[in-house]
Amino acid sequence: MDDIYKTRKTLLFKIKDQYNDDAWAEFSEVYKHYIYAIIRGMKITAADADDIVQKIMMRLWKKLPEMSYDEQKSFRAFLAVVTKNEVLRFIEHRKRQMKRDQNAYDTDDGDYLSTIRLPEIEQIAQKEWEIYLTNRAFENLAKDYDTKAIEGFKMCLKGIGVGEVARLIGVEEKMVYNLRFRMKERFSKEIAKLRQDLE
């Protein structure tokens, strides 16, 4: 399990070399979807979100190799700030474009910009991070448990009763109890490991 993820410290050290393609591919795989989810949570369209993610990744490619590593700071919080700043740049750029076109706030774009919820960035980032960690933890569990077991455990997490879960996945109730106990402990460990490695 220790080999599944490089620690945040190790990965950040490796990407100090801007031309370490493997390290940057790993960095992108770990954090890109989280950044995208924050942007979409701010009501940015999918097309614009893709463009903003690319700008953020380029900005990080330039900036991260120069940064010193600080054990006490949350890298996730740093990413949320960088994302917020890039979205602000996007909004300001779009507003300037609209003014140049003499259509400020009278177009669909004006309505679109007004729906972006910048003050809630911290809540959006926190919510998306929890979803992201949960999904990554389930990806790890899928390496050791079959699909039926994973689906059964997800049902248990949603509060569905043991009897109903057993009926839906076609096993005895005793198996659901055992599965729930074993997977709950493993799931908690996966989440803790991901927090340690990625935040």
UniProtKB/TrEMBL annotation:
Keyword Transcription carried by entry: yes
Record-annotated RNA polymerase sigma-70 region domain positions: 31-96
Signal sequence extent: none
InterPro entries reported for this sequence: RNA_pol_sigma-70-like, RNA_pol_sigma-70_dom, RNA_pol_sigma70_r2, RNA_pol_sigma_r2
Keyword annotations from UniProtKB, A to Z: DNA-binding, Sigma factor, Transcription, Transcription regulation
Pfam families: Sigma70_r2
Keyword Signal: no
Residue runs in coiled coils: none
Name assigned to this protein: RNA polymerase sigma factor
Species for this entry: Lentisphaera profundi
